[in-house]
Amino acid sequence: MSKKLVAFFSASGTTKKVAQMIAEEVKADLFEIEPKIPYTRADLDWMNKKSRSSVEMSDKKYRPEIMEKEIDMSSYDEIFLEFQIWWYVAPTIINTFLETYDFSGKKIVLFATSGGSGFGNTVKELQSSASDAVITEGRLLNCGTKQEITEWINSL
User: Fold this and answer.
1) In the 3-class helix/strand/coil scheme, how is 27-78 assigned residue by residue?
2) Distance of CA 141 to CAs 16, 19, 83, 118, Å?
3) Cα separation, 60 vs 120, whole angstroms
4) Is the CA virtual torsion 70, 104, 29, 119 positive or negative?
5) Contact call for residues 106 and 138 (beta carbons, < 8 A)
6) What is the pLDDT of residues 19-64, one digit of tens each?
7) What Rg value do the Cα atoms of the chain yield, rounded?
8) Is the dihedral of CA 82, 86, 88, 91 positive or negative?
9) pLDDT in tens, 78-102
């Protein structure tokens, strides 16, 4: 039986609830991707071109620092990676996470929450940050109901 990890980034807490339900459903360990400097409400104002999130997303090479945590990625075969969709892709903090740990030979299944957009070019933009992993687009779980999560997990 393979060991699973649910890793997530949740700027406002909504995504965290979905990650917790998925971890419970697949009997996986839970890992929170935390920025070294937490995002404020003003940082997340996508209407303000000078907000922190807008600046980060306008430069695809930008990598926000994350809290370093000891975790043995070699003990996991499959990683469920969750985040909010920002500007039709994963936030660049997800690239930071993928570049911080070794995901060689791992299967990474993406899932996300979104205010209205889909995955866009997310897989393509993340693949270079974990080139030796197999990254697959999962599903948007905006409602995050137990039934929706169970159905999705059973479909994998």
Assistant:
1) CCEEEECCECCCCCCCCCCCCCCCCHHHHHHHCCCCCCCECCCCCCHHHCCE
2) 12, 10, 10, 11
3) 15
4) positive
5) no
6) 999 999 999 999 999 999 999 999 999 889 999 999 999 998 999 9
7) 15
8) negative
9) 999 999 999 889 999 999 999 999 9
Q: Which two tokens stand for residue 97?
A: 């996470």
Element (H, E) at 140: strand 134-140
Q: How is residue 122 annotated by DSSP?
A: H
Token duo for residue 51: 């907000």
Contact 119, 107 (CB under 8 A): no
Cβ contacts of 51 within 8 Å, gap of 6 or more? 42, 43, 44, 45
